[in-house]
Amino acid sequence: MLIVDANEFEGHEGFSIKRVGGLFKRGVRVSRVKYEKYIHGRRILFFSIPTRNCVFVTGIHARGDLGVGNDYDFAKEPFTRAARYWGMRNTLC
Fold first, then answer.
1. Of 6, 1, 2, which is closest to residue 56 (Cα–Cα)?
2. Closest CA relative to residue 4, chosen from 47, 68, 50, 69
3. Which of 2, 41, 61, 76 is the most buried (most CB within 10 A)?
4. C-alpha torsion 25→30→36→37, nearest 10
5. 6 Cβ partners below 8 Å, 6+ apart?
6. What is the CA radius of gyration of the chain?
7. How far is residue 47's CA from residue 40's CA, in Å, rounded to a whole number?
8. DSSP state of 78
9. How far is CA 89 from the centre of its chain?
């Protein structure tokens, strides 16, 4: 059985995977991917469902849709959608 869980990772050419800390503190285990070289200005929000060997992408968003700088606005639609999908994770995949 393969268990997929995102760890934080900082790679080459602007690639990184990071947990969205504000949501993790609320129990919503959402992470984001950025890859500036190939998908400049976009962020992919996702979470893994290890019991189903699944990674669920909640959306691909422009950086500005998430907040300004490192200050994410968790009231914005991408985060509320991610939290809603997280609540449905047992029925996804």
1. 6
2. 50
3. 61
4. 140
5. 17, 19, 31, 46, 47, 48, 55
6. 13
7. 21
8. H
9. 14
Per-residue pLDDT of the chain (93 residues; tens, 9 = 90+): 444 455 677 888 888 898 998 898 899 999 999 998 888 999 999 999 888 889 999 999 999 899 876 788 999 999 999 999 999 999 998
Three-state SS for 64? helix
* Nearest one of 24, 89, 87 to 8, comparing CA atoms: 24
| 4 phi, psi to nearest 5 deg | -105, 125
Residue type, 6: A
Residues 6+ apart with CB under 8 A from 24: 30
CA-to-CA dists, residue 71 to 40, 66, 89, angstroms = 19, 8, 26
Q: Among candidates 19, 59, 57, 11, which has minimal Cα distance to 35?
A: 11
